[in-house]
Amino acid sequence: MELPGPMPRRADRVPMARRKSRAGILIVAIGAVMVIVYAAVFKTLMGVDAQDHSWIGAIYWTITTMSTLGYGDITFTSDAGRLFSLLVLLSGVVYMLVLLPFFVIQYVVTPWLDRRRTARTPRKVPAQMRDHVLLVGSDAVTQAFAARAERSQVPAVLVVEDPVEAGLLHDQGRQVVVGPLDSAQTYRSAGADRARMVASMLSDTANTNVAFTVRQVCGDVPVAVTASKPVSVDVLSLAGSDHVLELGAVLGREMAGRVLGTTGRVHRIGSFGDTLIAEAAVRGTSLVGKSLGEATMGLRSCVRILAIMRKGRLRPLKPELPITEQTVLILAGEAAELAAYDEQFQVLEQSEDPVIILGGGRVGRSASRELTAQGVPNTIVELLSDRVENSYSALEGTASYTVVAGDAADQRILRRAGLENASAVLVTPRDDDLNVYLTLFCRRLRPELQVVSRATYERNVATLYRAGADGVLSYATIGATDLWNHAGLSHRVLVAEGNELFLVPRPNSLVRRSVRDTEVHRRTGCHIVAVAGDDGTLSYDTESIPSAPGKLLLLGDRHAERRFRETYLRRRRRGRRVTTSR
């Protein structure tokens, strides 16, 4: 499902309503001017025909002619008068059949439909609902979370202020509660005291008010909010927020974490229990040229290869699969095991090549800080160089960054920034159209370069991959994944936009099948990559799915997850319901 952008709030609709009012007044004024002018011309032409009519008679004739009624009781005898009648008739057809219906639809039909939609929008959740997640506001993050909750059959309720917006969301199948966001009664009606978590994705000031209001209703419900400015973190915590997510900073760090570098070292991207999930590029290592089977046999540690990716796409885990320079391994293991992998394959005598960051906004600056902390030299290309801080005093003594002022779409600027010697490019602007352009531009300049791009809307993710991005990350997915994990739901690790590692209950129909069962992937698109215990820790000592209670670790996109749940999990739930009813 494509995620729409944030809907306008009530304050934003005031200018829109004013514009509609002006348009309606203009339509009425045009009609009145037409009637007065035509009536005046009518009286003049009737004088030529030696007929005398009052102003009431002139207006009567004008309106009946414009509306095509034409009773015929008042007519012209001259050709000039008849031509004028045709003009009045044709202009009346245009006015009556085009402008007036538009006026009626905008000011009669649409408000009536909005009132009907508003009347059936819920004002409260059912009394028996509990352990649900309240999502305050409607933007890309909350709707991504709501879509994920729908797939996982986790109750999620959107709390919005505008009744029309609530009606639209309700028509889309979302659970909605409408009410003022700064009213304690709204959250009482939404069952905040029974909720698993309250998450607010509004502005920093609005999130502060929401946190205070929720705390007035319930003092122990977890409250998660987003912050656009670092200075807001402490204020939001004082207001009662348990978890403050700086989306810009997190997205920058995640993008920096996807830079694979040129030395083959592992990059941690998440964890399940005590098991760490990491990715490692094989470029420049001794693994290049080997098959997957040979690489697996040559591992000295207990690190497990969960998946293989090339250019952001999964490849089947077949022993004969060749490992090329573009291969990225998704690894699982404990910290000591990943360190042993580094010791075996990392090219220590080679230093990391620099990274170019296109855009010096919050995301770009956060990515630069993360790379600098890792000792990776980086260069920020920013048109407005004053946006970028001049120094990182907290990171003194580590690799530094440089700033190149200019347009990132200019080949000369990129070459001045060191594109020829870079290992990767991070595309961080907010404009998806610009990001598609920059991704394609960098890919054409250096085909072997790693390109990690940012997306704002999910609909542009596939386009960015087609443009040549090796990895894509977005606000919506990063925010929704963070909130999902913070809510204590089934843990997830984002590998790349469109590919996630997630846990599901172990279906009985898959017991004793191979972990590498291709039938599951053929039917659903999900890869079974490991078996996990109840605590989420991965098991390495099994190649088949045991009958003991536990979970499966799957890798796939949202469509594959939906198909897996419909194929294997909902069937089990239906069976349980039948057994219970008997």
Automatic annotation (TrEMBL):
Primary location recorded for the protein, binned into one broad class: membrane
Membrane topology summary: Multi-pass membrane protein
Localization, UniProt: Cell membrane
InterPro entries: K_chnl_dom, NAD(P)-bd_dom_sf, RCK_C, RCK_C_sf, RCK_N, Trk_Ktr_HKT_K-transport
Occurrences of domain RCK C-terminal (ranges): 264-347
Spans traversing the lipid bilayer: 21-41, 53-71, 83-109
Pfam families given in the database record: Ion_trans_2 (PF07885), TrkA_N (PF02254)
Keywords: Ion channel, Ion transport, Membrane, Transmembrane, Transmembrane helix, Transport
Ranges where the RCK N-terminal domain occurs: 130-245, 352-473
Top-level taxon in the UniProt lineage: Bacteria
GO BP terms: monoatomic ion transmembrane transport
SUPFAM superfamilies recorded: NAD(P)-binding Rossmann-fold domains, TrkA C-terminal domain-like, Voltage-gated potassium channels
UniProt protein name: Potassium channel family protein
